[in-house]
Design brief:
By secondary structure, the protein is an alpha+beta fold. Helices cover 43% and strands 19% of the residues. Helix 1 crosses helix 2, helix 2 crosses helix 3 and helix 3 packs antiparallel against helix 4.
Length: 157
C-alpha cells in the first residue's frame, strides 16, 4: 500500500473496523516516512462469469437494472430493489466462492423477488427460465400458490 502523500511503499495499520454492511473492512493507516494518515477499504472481490466466458466484477447495479424491468408498473420502490440486490450479493458471498456463474445470480434473485412481488417474480422467471407456453406460467403460478398455502383457483390438470 503506497502512501497517497509521499508515495512511500509501506504503511502501518492503526485501526481496523468492519463496515456497516459487514462486507468490507475499513483500515486507518499511517505512513512511517511522512507520518500522514489515510484510510483504506478492503473488500473481497467477486467475479461473474457470463455465458460467453467473459469475466467481470459483480455489480449490484446490474442486478437492480435487470430486476427493475420486471417491476415496471408494480408497487416496488428503488429502496426495495437496492435491498433485494444486497440480499442477492450476501447470498452469493455466503457460498464462499470468489467467482460465480451469471446463471447462479439469476437463481439467487428468484426467491427474494418472489417475496417482494409475485407478478414481478413471474415476469423475471418467464424470461430467465425461458417460459415457452401458458403451461409454464400455470406451473409457476401453482408453485407460488403452494408456497403461500393457497388453494388453486381451479383443479390442476
Amino acid at each position: 500500500m503506497y502512501c497517497p502523500f509521499c508515495r512511500h511503499s509501506d504503511s502501518r495499520v492503526i485501526d481496523s473496523r468492519t463496515s456497516d454492511d459487514g462486507l468490507s473492512i475499513r483500515r486507518r493507516r499511517q505512513c512511517p516516512e511522512c507520518g500522514g494518515r489515510f484510510s483504506t477499504t478492503e473488500t473481497a472481490s467477486l467475479s461473474v462469469t457470463k455465458r460467453s466466458g467473459v469475466t467481470e466484477p459483480f455489480s449490484r447495479e446490474k442486478v437492480v437494472l435487470g430486476v427493475k424491468k420486471a417491476c415496471q408498473g408494480r408497487p416496488v420502490t428503488d429502496s426495495d430493489l437496492a435491498l433485494l440486490a444486497q440480499t442477492v450479493e450476501e447470498t452469493i458471498r455466503s457460498t464462499g466462492a470468489s467467482q460465480i456463474e451469471a446463471n447462479d445470480i439469476g437463481l439467487a434473485i428468484l426467491p427474494p423477488l418472489r417475496d417482494l412481488d409475485e407478478v414481478a417474480y413471474l415476469r423475471f422467471a418467464s424470461v430467465y427460465q425461458a417460459f415457452e407456453s401458458l403451461d409454464d406460467f400455470e406451473t409457476a403460478i401453482e408453485q407460488l400458490r403452494a408456497v403461500h398455502g393457497r388453494l388453486p383457483a381451479r383443479p390442476v390438470e
